[in-house]
Design goal:
- This protein has one domain: Ribonuclease H-like superfamily/Ribonuclease H (Nucleotidyltransferase, domain 5, 2-Layer Sandwich).
- It has five helices and five strands, in the order βββαβαβααα.
- A five-stranded mixed beta sheet has the order 3-2-1-4-5.
- Strand 1 and strand 2 form a beta hairpin.
- Helix 1 packs parallel to helix 2, helix 3 crosses helix 5 and helix 4 crosses helix 5.
- One of its GO terms (biological process) is DNA recombination.
- Pfam families: RuvC (PF02075).
- Belongs to the RuvC family.
């Protein structure tokens, strides 16, 4: 019987966190980092190509991803939406299940505890939660990717 591979993604145009689950068990994670590339067009292409390469290499069956939340910055919103669409297109093209969560939705599937409301408080909560659940110290991008995938696992347990 084939293992089920789940990848969680916390996307951005500069740093995208990814997590790797096999049969519902957290196995690996990391960050695709293109923050040094100042040209946003090149950075977007590099990020999308890197995400495609990661998904192909991991032979993924399901992608869990955070949907874009409305931000104050229209340019950032457009870039995040483009990345989300690129990942969706890759999933459709490769017959991979695509699951989107709103930020509040995946956090509620992880824990019912109060998480804070400000961006920095939420990032700190994610890092601390991953350390508590998996005994792993990670960046906030990586933590969110781990927890987004874990939310999907929790939803079906």
């Amino acid at each position: 019987m084939k293992d089920t591979i789940l990848v969680g993604l916390d996307t951005s145009s500069t740093k995208t966190g990814w997590s790797y689950y096999v049969n519902g068990n957290f196995t690996d994670s990391g960050v695709l980092n293109f923050s040094k590339q100042k040209n946003s067009g090149i950075r977007m292409q590099d990020m999308v190509n890197s995400i495609y390469e990661k998904l192909s290499t991991l032979k993924v069956d399901i992608v869990a991803i955070e949907t874009t939340a409305v931000t104050r910055n229209a340019s950032s919103q457009r870039m995040l939406t483009m990345i989300l669409g690129a990942v969706y297109g890759w999933c459709v093209n490769n017959n991979v299940e695509f699951v989107m969560f709103r930020p509040s939705e995946w956090r509620a599937l992880i824990s019912k505890e109060k998480k804070g409301r400000k961006r920095d408080e939420l990032k700190q909560w994610s890092v601390q939660t991953v350390e508590k659940l998996f005994k792993k110290k990670v960046s906030d991008d990586e933590a969110d990717a781990i927890l987004i995938a874990q939310a999907l696992v929790n939803k079906y347990e």
